[in-house]
Amino acid sequence: MPESELLRGVLAPPFTPFEADGRVAEELWITHARHLLDVGCAGLVPFGTTSEAASLGLEERVHLLDQLFGAGVPPERMIVGVGTTNLPDTVRLAAQASRHGCAGVLLLPPFYYPNVTDDGLFAWAEHFIAHVNTQTERLQVYLYHIPQVAGVGWSVNLVRRIRAAFPEHVVGIKDSTGDWANTQALLGIDGLTVYPGTELLLPEALSHGAPGCISATANLNAAAIAEAILTFASDRTTFDARFAAVAQFRRTVQPYGAIPAQKALLARRTGDVRWRNVRPPLRPLSEPDTARLAYALEGTS
Questions:
Q1: By the 8 A CB rule, do 274 and 19 touch?
Q2: Residue pLDDT, tens place only, 118-137
Q3: How many CB atoms lie within 10 A of CB 256?
Q4: What is residue 300's predicted lDDT score, i.e. its pLDDT?
Q5: Dist. CA 172–CA 153, nearest whole Å
Q6: Residues 6+ apart with CB under 8 A from 52
Q7: What pLDDT is recorded for position 257?
Q8: Maximum separation of any 2 CA atoms in the chain, in Å
Q9: 212 touches 195 (CB < 8 A)
Q10: Cα angle 53-55-93, degrees, rounded to a multiple of 5
Q11: Alpha carbons 91 and 279: distance in angstroms, whole number
């Protein structure tokens, strides 16, 4: 991808809001997406882990993407999560996003089967690219590496191999391991754009050429993260102070469970109780824990 087209800064995988009966609250979904762009997000990553993508059906995802496009949320500022356990559904989502001109798709390796080999994952990526290319020529792929959740990941050697085989399509990766050594190795792959999956690695990642990060806590703290990134090149003293604040925010939230905790905080901030809703097997954060977390966060954002 040309340097000028990169989404630079913080990208948010937006929460998916639910009504009390479990249906997606579609108007709130669109409002939240717009809000995140307005407060400083360079882009959105709908159907990332924090979007509860694994709890959404294929038709729900297709419909919700259409709702975003129809509402005028700019597709060129979206990297759409397309991870599923099977090739046909993954291809369908990726083709939809690519046809609409999205900046890219975020591709999990196929999860569920144990002990899959790099050769097997390479074949899956090869088939995925070939099938999407029968429907659109605009495919731009960001691999999604989160093995601690998915149970399978893209090894550095495999990423290098896939990038070399499909340089016009495989343009980047989101590394959600939180392991700087792994992120640094990925940043050494020629032409690959690397987004760490946490703002905690911003000092190291920005120093090595990363354009920013994709962060769950951008749902609540986007402006602060964006402001920190903006000052990195020009004012390291200011960056250090801002980074310390956003790092403390994330470290405070993490022990409570990223999705229920942040949704509970968003409900508290906005007064819209629907934000507390999650789909099973997740459970809402209790009111006492929400109050304790909100108190702990005072002065960190």
A1: yes
A2: 999 999 999 999 999 999 88
A3: 18
A4: 58
A5: 15
A6: 15, 16, 259, 278, 279, 282
A7: 86
A8: 53
A9: yes
A10: 45
A11: 25
